[in-house]
Amino acid sequence: MADEPENVNQSDGTLAGRRAERIKIVLRIIWMAIQIAIVLWAGESGVHFLYQGF
Amino acid sequence: MAVDFFARPVWLVFGLAVLLLTPLTSGAVRKWVLAALNLMLIVTILWSNPFMVRASQVKLSIALIVGVGLAWASLRLIRRAGKPGLAACLCSIGLLAVWLLHKLPHLAQKAHLDRFSGLLVTVGFSYAALRMVEAMRAMAERRHAAPDIADTINYLLPFNMLAAGPIQAYDDFVAQPQVPEPLTFKRTLACAERIVNGLFKKYALALTLQRLFLTDWRSHGLYLLLVESQIYYVWLYLDFSAYSDIAVGMGGLLGIATPENFNRPYLARNVIDFWERWHISLSQFIRRNVFLPLQLFFVRRSEGSNALGAACLAFAISFTLCGLWHNVSVRWLFWGAIQASGLIVCYLYRHILLKRHGRKWVNAQVANPVQRAISIVLTFEFAALSVAATMYQR
pLDDT per residue over B232-270, tens digit each? Predict the structure, then answer.
């Protein structure tokens, strides 16, 4: 990751490109929030629930 | 694993590190603050252990400081000695003795050093020992100046790499800027994603797989054991790479150079390719410090007449030692031997194909999608079954 160029995923500078870039960022943040929610749920009760339900 | 990344002390130290290190613009102040935080994590883990009495906590905290002091003094001694090779050998014997205490708990028990062995587990000594080897070699070869105490702590005991590596090369540690470039939004987002991905892999995916499908090899019948061996290998990747993701993400946010440890290992096409994708920092450590020096030694010994044999012998010794590093037992010696055999067969096979058919023909075979798919499946099975054969117990 240290070598990852900063311009990866940068928009092409047009209005549509910038909008697409912003949407991608929002989607990434939403996916992170979902993952955190699953981790907090699955930490104990979630996995236990799955295990019992199987 | 030495440190649970979900435990409170890790997040406490990480939060403090973000708060304290981000605004610092002085490299000298920054490294001392980081060193203090690195030590703070270990001391906090020791002091939050409910099974440890206060006297033990104090003793182990003192032992930690003494250990760091000894490591620092050893590195200075090697760097300044008239015969650095000899000094490095003597220090290596001491390091090996401590490592054996860490790996053989019954030995520590016999020597009444069980508490000390607990400290070694907390500092992730398997990894700290490899970093010490890197630093000693750099000192013996006079590649860098001797580190001060802060650098010794920051290299040997980085809090984000304490649990399960990665193993940072000493050259990379020295080369990183003392004050990292300011974080951009994109970089911050990418690092946060790595941390969250790691948590998701470990505490949602790996944990679910473990609870639902893994039985500690108590499944009945060969078919179920084979299925378990496949799932165990997937679980191992999810669990282990999760630690690396969290370490890389934390390192990226704090400007601590943290090497990548995995590069889609399931796509490896042969055992050599596998070891370039799985636990990369360990395989690079082995390559730098064991394989290449041994290969060079054997080539020189045979006066260049048996380069192939030299490489095979170097593979055999390197990966047998790699097995023993994981655990000093016949089981892991066997695992190391299997890996070495796989690497040697692969190396010889490639050599024979190149000699008989030439590079063009070999490249055409490599590009063939059917052959690629078959070789990926075979490599996956090799890795999964070799781990299963090592871990299997009734």
Answer: 999 999 999 999 999 999 999 988 889 999 999 999 999
Enclosing domain of residue A54:
12-54
Place of tokens 């095979």: B312
Domain ranges of chain B: 8-175, 185-258, 267-391
A7 occurs within a structural domain: no
Contact criterion met (CB below 8 Å) for B336 and B319: yes
Number of domains composing chain A:
1
A42 interaction partners in chain B (CB closer than 8 Å): 203-204, 207-208
Judge whether A24 lies within some domain.
yes
CB spacing of A42 vs B208 below 8 angstroms: yes
Q: Which of A4, A43, A54 sits opposite B212 (nearest CB)?
A: A54
ipTM at complex level: 0.76
Which chain A positions have a beta carbon within 8 Å of B241's beta carbon? none
Cα gap B150→B334, rounded to integer Å: 39
Burial tier of B352 (Cβ tally within 10 Å: 0-12, 13-18, 19+):
exposed
Minimal CA separation from A28 to chain B, in Å: 8
Size of interface A-B (CB pairs under 8 A): 54
